[in-house]
Amino acid sequence: MTGLGRGGQQIIKSKEVYAKALETLVELASFQTAFTILDEVIRATNRRVNAIEHVIMPRLENTIKYIMSELDEMDREEFFRYDCIEAYGCSLIVLRLKKVQGKKKRENTAKAAEVTQERLSAVTSSISEDDQASTNLLSTKDEDVIF
């Protein structure tokens, strides 16, 4: 007898089908793990986006509004001083001193606005870096995970 009987061929075919089904099951488990990780990353990203939209940005906007109102107030004070000096003939030294003080206040306020803007940029770039890291984590194929 050189060949297998009909029963032997069925056993070999059953083994092949079983091996293929097992490979497919392992691949399916790998996909399931990847989807679970992706879901967790999406939830974390949504939390960060909500924090930025509802907490960080309103704080920064309020800070910017405060800085702008302070700058406007300084401009009004300077205008009033100029009118007062013209009307009452105050000395030129007092005028220069007040201008220097006003300029220093404006510079400090402008620096505070820049720092606030830099903080917003840092938070935004941090989130985009986290999104890129999440994408890289899911793009790798994990072949040795077996469930």
Proportion of residues in extended strands:
under 5%
Total domains, how many? Answer: 1
Q: Count helical runs.
A: 2
- Structural category is mainly alpha
Q: What is the helix/strand order?
A: HH
Shape label:
rod-shaped
> What is the CA-atom radius of gyration, in angstroms?
35 Å
Mean pLDDT, as a whole number? 80
State the low-pLDDT regions, or none: none
Distance between the termini: 42 Å
The largest sheet is:
none
- The percent of residues in helical segments reads over 70%
- Give the beta-strand count: 0
Tell me what you see in this structure.
The longest helix has 83 residues, at 6-88. The protein has helices at residues 6-88, 92-139. Helix 1 (6-88) packs antiparallel against helix 2. It has one domain. The chain is rod-shaped and about 120 Å long. It is built from 2 helices and no strands.
Short description:
This protein is mainly alpha-helical and 147 residues long. It has helices spanning 6-88, 92-139.
Question: Which features does this protein show?
Answer:
mainly alpha; 147 residues
Show the helix and strand layout.
Elements: H1 6-88, H2 92-139
Helix pairs in contact: 1-2
